[in-house]
Amino acid sequence: MFPNIFDADDGSALNEYLAVTIACILSILCGIHIGWTSPYIPKLLKSEDYPFYISNEAASYIAIFGPIGDVIGEITCMLTMDRLGRKNNFLLSAVPMLLSGILIYFSYVSPLLIYIARLMGGIGMGWIMSVLPVYVSEISRPSIRGKLGVIPVAMYTFGIVAVNLAGNYLSMYHLALVVIGICFIFLATFVGMPDSPYLLLMYDRQDGAEKSLNFFRRTRNVQRELFSLEKDVKRQISEGTHYKNLFTVYSNRKALMLMVFARIFQQLTGTTAFTMYNQELLQDSKDILEPQFGVFIISFIQVLMGFVSGNLSDRFGRIPLMVYSSASCCVCLILTGSYFTIRDFSTISLPSWFPLVLLTLFFMVFQIGIGALVAVILGEIFSASIKPKAICVVNMTFSGTVLLTTKFFQVSRDYIHISVAFYGFALFSLLGAISFKVFYPETKGKTLEEIQMSLKSDNREKSENSTIEK
Q1: Contact, 390 vs 259, CB < 8 A?
Q2: Which regions span the lipid bilayer (predicted)?
Q3: Domain ranges of the chain
Q4: Does the model's pTM come out above 0.70?
């Protein structure tokens, strides 16, 4: 455990912020992993920067091995999250990231090591992205869960910014040493953190759960919350922990459907496709600003908007922000598509700064709502009995949608017209805004059990209405 300064009895949220911040060191590594291909694959393709010849096709497989590893990591986490605990899963998830850094450092021996390194990094990322929202939601008090829940998203984006900057100054081997060092810093600091009180109560470890709450709430007076959590966990576990309970229990089924569609609508804004092709999209603005610096500005703004989103969501609610965000994305996408349509099919001359401004606005409104808050709700909405399995399904849906949207953008750009992708993504953003407004429950300020009860209330209302009709 940490020094006495972190065991004070002042009731502040300091230790919750401390735990989430340290856990988010791994989010930074995920951002470095996902952004690594942008600056370093071009270096691999240059024979003077790497001792082995890497063809374009071989380089494409280096990029693909990461998402393959994601799926393996998600399945692994599903199997181990409850059995080993949230904390132990965190510590273990750093191992593939550590191995990835080591293998890249020694890849001058054989290029095969890069493929294995990307696979290991993907496994670590899938593992981390599955357990992180669970841990954050389970240690957070309801009043600040939104603020804490967006920190992983902001740190993930920061990792992407950092690796793109590092690509200008650090070799592949030097960055690998940085990754290795970050892994050891995480392991040294997170090992002293308590496990989730929810997890400890699932295994009837009341003393451990009480100590966990003492640490996170910074108070000795946790008996009332402990009693409430114990009752909540027992009720949720009574619903069953088997995979079939994800579909047979109404509240689980509804939560799964809501989060699967939330992830789909999130990616159907086109955000990942635009991230991969940002420099190309900003070519028209290169007279004002070099594309790589434009990408840096956009990514930095995303980090800031992630923190702003957390504060606003705890004040105004998750759902209003997601509705506003999706609707605003729709407007930005229509304007951007119109820019490319006018540029290519008319004689009208538009200012060259349009793409930079429009994409910056898009990523701002995206991150302030649907970009950051889907991950927050993902950690809140599922019952403790079924959470690892549900998050695995949702994350695998996320991975599949990323592949589809990226391919749709590439096909539209190469074979139809780039504006088609923007108009298509705008339509889905509008559908997302309507769906969030109509179907999604508000989770702001509610305990995790209160969220479960709100999901069940819909089923009770339907049953009562059908009884009345009879």
Answers
A1: yes
A2: 17-36, 90-108, 114-136, 148-166, 172-193, 255-277, 289-309, 321-342, 354-378, 390-409, 415-436
A3: 8-193, 249-465
A4: yes
